[in-house]
Design brief:
heterodimer, A: MetI-like fold, five-stranded antiparallel β-sheet, 13 strands, flat, B: alpha/beta, Rossmann fold, four-stranded antiparallel β-sheet, 25% strand, globular
């Protein structure tokens, strides 16, 4: 009896199987480890972006260093570096300071040797002025002047007056901006339209008398508009005068005085006087400005709202183009085409399309959309504007269509999978009720496959939002003066060029005139890009989950 | 003519006497899946407002035969048919026939319940909508009538807007029946309608079939011989694509004429 039991146990714990069991355990650990590594990688990327990105908006204290030679340097400590000793030089412990005052020093950053530092202090009354031009100013307030009249003198008095003054100046700046973008912009737009109308008339081939009569009409309106424009321009000039009426006199750490027009100052803070909460509030304000403001100083300062807007709008246009294209193609491939060699080849070709380098799509978009279709459209619809191209140059529409081609394989594959997952018996149920094949596909199969299709759309949108290379040749620009969507008819300006977060990262990081100062912007912009893509994906995922709930337990 | 003269007198095992009017006549129907002949010269007559059962072991061609009646086999590549099926005096293979109109008149309930991923209401309203009925009031009426006809109304009347996929298997199958009768067909084909259901749900479906008898001609394919004997008036036994025996259910089960039939219903093979 006992013997029997032993034998049966022996077969349970089996000699040979022990090895594969142990190997199985190791394999499980290996798989788990690989997953953990991946998760770690993603977390690493995100935390790096968050740390560096948010760090860009954080204001450190300004420190005044007195050096051995008696000179003074005022700046924010960005990093400390120890340069290893070489046979020729001893090791150097040095600090990198952001000193601002580009108009005085010519550069934003300096290195100072720790060994040269005699003393350091953090004076409470040091100010940081954020300016529209020349970047930040670090220094001490002296006085405010209007013409020859001195309005306030002494650090504290000037500080007290500066706050309210900056608020009025900001209001004035906004008024100027509104005038420029609003009334003046509208008149410019109208004048341009009149110019085009005149040109259209010129090439219209109407009888000379009629042409002259109409030309006279146009000229008359044009004159009226130009007179209006002149009035507005005068007003603008006065407003600008008023804006620059006051000047702020401030001194740098080395004692040099500088006159700064108050109208050109965006904000004034005393960083060394701010507590942690104050600095957090400042950081929040800066992040908000970064998201909602227009860029300044060739993208090195200000916000990046147009880039966010351009990215989102381009992706949505792309989605509108790719959804019908991909879905219809997939429906044909899966539902109508006779499954044979040809369909297999097409499917292979479609899948391989996803592997084509994206810049190739850009080249195709340039050759096909921009030159061929855009060029023809210009000849047909906008001959009066030529030789200035309207659609015959890169624009947001062509960019969206190019990316639609790039992402259509993703949508086709996902849709095909979604369609394949709809059971045959469900289709037969519809056909057995007397529905045609088309009715069955439209009313039963496509709704059932909708979550799968949306999964494809999510992937396509994520891909499109991150794609930069092809856009560089089909309509993306470093700085677009106008958004592709505004208040002037026809509201949606598909021919306009646009800004893009992906390109902005490259631009501020590596193409900027002031690279040292803007490199951290790379991280902030990348963080924003990830946020935008995530938000768009969440939107699509929400939609998909809504559909899934609606068809709870559906096959896909 | 020659065929008629060659045929022996009436074979009582294959041609029962039927008093009711004939709605469907299958005439020497053969079917090939590619090279394989799945149905071999099958002839039988299906009377109006009766329940006819097709029984036989797996792969005998009973489902194929059923799916010929509403031409659902058309969807499969490589299917070839010879012979004819006459429905109300007209050949269903006539090229002039509108296949969707035919399927509207010959409804079908499938082996696995296949509600659409839509609400209960929309499932039933699907067929009438396809027929062009748009008015909400008409649709409401049809939905209520059909669900009542399928003995489902009391269970679902408060949740018509919920997904049909949240119902139990038996309810789903009755919903499919409601969906089929919503387009007012003349014939309903049942393709093993209870094979995925528990005995209680099965009993309800069988009960329902009896209730529907006054209005519809029903043809049922079943694996389950007890079910055939319980619900049907006529039974056809198919084996390897051939019609072996066809006659009143009672006679087939009590007094089969052919040895193969007897072997099958007594459980000696199958």
């Amino acid at each position: 009896m006992q013997n029997d039991e032993k034998t049966s146990h022996a077969s349970l714990y089996g000699g040979d199987r022990g090895w594969s069991e142990r190997f199985g355990h190791a394999f499980t650990w290996l798989c788990g480890g690989a997953l953990a590594l991946n998760v770690l990688l993603v977390l690493g990327i995100l935390s790096l972006l968050a740390w560096k990105g948010f760090g860009y908006f954080w204001q450190e204290d300004l420190v005044e260093f007195t050096l051995k030679d008696g000179s003074k340097v005022l700046g924010e400590v960005w990093e400390e570096e120890i340069v290893a000793a070489t046979p020729e030089h001893p090791a150097v412990d040095r600090l990198r300071l952001k000193i601002g005052n580009r108009d005085v020093n010519g550069l934003d950053f300096v290195w100072i040797d720790r060994a040269d530092v005699v003393s350091r202090r953090e004076p409470k009354d040091v100010v940081l002025l954020e300016r529209l031009e020349w970047g930040n100013f670090h220094g001490y307030l002296r006085e405010i002047r209007r013409g020859d009249q001195v309005l306030a003198q002494g650090s504290e008095a000037v500080w007290q007056q500066l706050g309210p003054l900056l608020a009025t100046k900001e209001a004035e700046r906004e008024e100027i901006h509104a005038l420029e973008k609003g009334a003046i912009g509208a008149i410019n737009y109208e004048i341009e339209k009149l110019r085009l109308a005149a040109r259209r008339l010129e090439i219209s081939g109407l009888p000379a008398a009629e042409r002259e009569r109409r030309q006279a009409e146009i000229d008359k309106t044009l004159q009226e508009r130009e007179a209006e424009f002149q009035q507005l321009a005068d007003r603008l000039f006065q407003m600008r005068e008023a804006l620059t009426a006051e000047t702020l006199v401030a001194a740098t750490a080395s004692g040099e005085t500088k006159e700064i027009p108050v109208g050109g100052i965006v904000s004034a803070i005393r960083p060394d006087d701010l507590g942690v909460l104050g600095k957090l509030a400042l950081q929040g304000k800066r992040i908000r400005q970064f998201v909602v403001d227009d860029p300044r100083e060739s993208n090195t300062e200000g916000g990046i709202f147009p880039a966010i807007f351009g990215t989102v709008m381009m992706v949505f246009l792309m989605a509108f183009a790719v959804a019908p294209l991909g879905v219809v193609a997939a429906v044909y491939l899966r539902e109508y085409a006779k499954q044979g060699l040809l369909v297999r080849l097409v499917r292979i070709a479609v899948n391989n399309l996803a592997g084509v380098p994206s810049i190739v799509f850009g080249v195709f978009g340039l050759g096909f959309f921009v030159y061929l279709i855009g060029g023809s459209l210009d000849k047909l619809l906008y001959p009066e504007a030529l030789p200035t191209p309207t659609f015959g140059t890169g624009g947001i529409l062509w960019a969206a269509l190019t990316l639609a081609l790039l992402t259509v394989p993703v949508v086709i594959v996902a849709t095909e999978e979604g369609l394949a997952a709809v059971p045959r018996i469900v289709r037969e149920g519809s056909l057995a009720l007397g529905a045609t094949k088309f009715e069955t596909i439209r009313k039963v199969v496509l709704p059932a496959a909708a979550p799968g299709i949306l999964t494809g759309m999510i992937l396509a949108m994520a891909r499109a939002a991150g794609e930069v290379a092809p856009l560089m040749i089909v309509g993306m620009v470093k700085l677009a003066p106008t958004l592709p969507l505004d208040g002037r008819p026809p509201f949606l300006h598909l021919e306009r060029k646009f800004m893009h977060l992906g390109f902005h990262i490259f631009d501020v990081g590596f193409q900027s005139p002031n690279i040292e100062a803007t490199t951290p912007l790379v991280f902030a912009t990348a963080l924003l890009l990830i946020t935008v893509v995530t938000l768009m994906n969440l939107l699509a995922i929400g939609l998909r989950n809504h559909l899934r709930r609606k068809y709870a337990g559906s096959a896909v | 003519m020659t065929a008629d003269t060659l045929q022996p007198q009436r074979d009582p095992a294959l041609e029962p006497e039927i008093k009711d009017p004939i709605i469907l006549r299958v005439e020497a129907l053969s079917l090939w899946y590619g090279e394989k002949k799945a149905l071999k010269e099958i002839s039988l007559k299906i009377p109006e407002k009766q329940i006819t059962a097709f029984i036989g072991p797996s792969g005998c061609g009973k489902s194929t035969l059923l799916r010929c009646i509403n031409r659902l086999n058309d969807l499969i590549d490589g299917v070839r048919v010879e012979g004819d099926i006459v429905f109300n005096g007209a050949s269903i293979f006539d090229p002039r026939i509108e296949i969707n109109a035919l399927r509207k008149r010959i409804g079908m309930v499938f082996q696995k319940s296949n509600p659409f991923p839509k609400s209960i209401y929309e499932n039933v309203a699907y067929g009438p909508r396809i027929q062009g009925i748009k008015r909400k009031r008409d649709l409401d009426e049809i939905v209520e009538k059909s669900l009542k006809g399928a003995a489902l109304w009391d269970e679902v009347k408060d949740r018509l807007d919920e997904s049909a996929l949240g119902m139990s298997g038996g309810q789903q199958q009755r919903l499919c029946i409601a969906r089929a009768i919503a387009v007012e067909p003349e014939v309903i084909l049942f393709d093993e309608p209870c094979s995925a259901l528990d005995p209680i749900a099965t009993a309800r479906i069988e009960e329902l079939m009896q209730d529907l008898k006054s209005q519809y001609t029903q043809v049922i394919v079943t694996h389950n011989m007890q079910q055939a004997s319980r619900v049907s008036d006529l039974t056809a036994f198919l084996y390897l694509g051939e019609l072996i025996e066809y006659g009143p259910t009672e006679r087939i089960f009590i007094n089969p004429m052919k040895k193969q039939t007897e072997d099958y219903i007594t459980g000696r093979f199958g």
